[in-house]
Design brief:
Elements (H helix, E strand, L loop, with lengths): L1 H12 L11 H18 L2 E5 L6 E6 L8 E7 L19 E3 L2 E3 L3 H22 L5 E7 L9 H7 L8 E4 L11 E6 L1 E10 L5 E2 H4 L6 H10 L22 H8 L5 H8 L12 H7 L2 E8 L10 E2 L2 E10 L5 H15 L5 E10 L2 E2 L5 H13 L6 E5 L5 H9 L3 E3 L15 E3 H18 L7
Helix pairs in contact: 1-3, 3-13, 4-12, 11-13
Length: about 450
Amino acid sequence: MQSAHIDDFFAFLRFPSISAQPAHSKDMRNCAEWLSTKLRNIGFSASLCDTLGHPIVLARLDAATPNSPTLLIYGHYDVQPVDPLELWESQPFEPTVKDGFVFARGATDNKGQILSHILGVQEWIEKRDALPVNIIFLIEGEEEVGSPNLAPFLREHRAELACDAIVVSDTGMVDIGCPTLTYGLRGIAAMEIHLSGPAMDLHSGIYGGAVANPVTELCRLVASLHDQQGRVAVEGFYNGVRPLQDWERSSWAGLPFNEEKIASVTKVPTLWGETGYSALERIWSRPTAEVNGIYGGYQGDGSKTVLPAQACAKLTFRLVPDQEPEKIQECVRKHFERICPPSVSMRIEMGHTGMPYLMEPDGTLGKLAIAALKKAFPSKEPALVREGGSVPIVADFKTILGAETLLLGLALPGCQIHSPNENFSLENLYNGIAINQAIIEEMKTMPKKS
């Protein structure tokens, strides 16, 4: 059985399902069709649902007993681009096993994690026959580009997606073998800032000193985002930020994923961030401003003495409860407009947004998830954490479907998602199967929502 599971995993990983690149549109559909076929072979009613972008895989299998609770399992089959290719130690779409880890693009984000749930249901059916709960798989192909078509799909199909709980494994574990319930996610607000100076690139000797350099001015604007204490220096940015609770601070301080481990994984000389908070507190409970890309002027080898005509920066702001992405975008826009010098023209483009998410880990579903993790990992106490990343659709699940999401991640700190040499632990493929079956076991006695 394990050999067949690995064959499935490798077949899934070989699809170059890069949603951001139009050249891979056919690969996207082929990957979705593979998933749909896999689910049908298990016994699900499965289909591809076309959107304005890439198709959504929707599958359902009902329990033998009427009026059983319904579990919706969400994941995504699209992956990040592979650049820079030269930094990969093996081909990104030819899975390679090394020391118990599978190296390939999408191995952790999110193919290994969602496949573990599919395999968990498959094993349940093969070993125990009928399911005790109804199960819906919702697997999209646009998570890596902001899920632009998923919220409309949820609204259109609200009735058939009605469920009692949602499980998402697109987050992390604090350490290998340490079961983790993520009860909070940061939101996101993206934007681009474009500066224009002269009508064309100029000779930097002839015009330098008389014409403002857009790259220099952009660097000044970007540098203005933070003060010397690492705080975001944008007026109104911290309005609505919910304070960290005492139990969270003490709980996180005892986790194995500490500052030393973070420095080791990231290989930085020293950690940096907002004064007065630990690294985990800054990642999980504080908002941030990050420059994702900055460019302008000559980028080739050697020297070209130009004064660039244009410069651009791509920015994202990770947000926490109770910040609102659109309000943050407006605060930043006003900040830049206030300090942008008249020697350059500025254009700001607002990008995608996603709300922060927070659930109560001591609520009914939180307790159910903790019980399931203890069943899957009988010798380990589950860690309760928040996640620094964003899964914007989780907030939409709550708003549109009225259901809470249990974030039961399998990504390890060194998995290198979005980077070269992304990898996934084979042990966690089987841990995911165990978690899936434990959740099903716990849910079967859960009263169905009216």
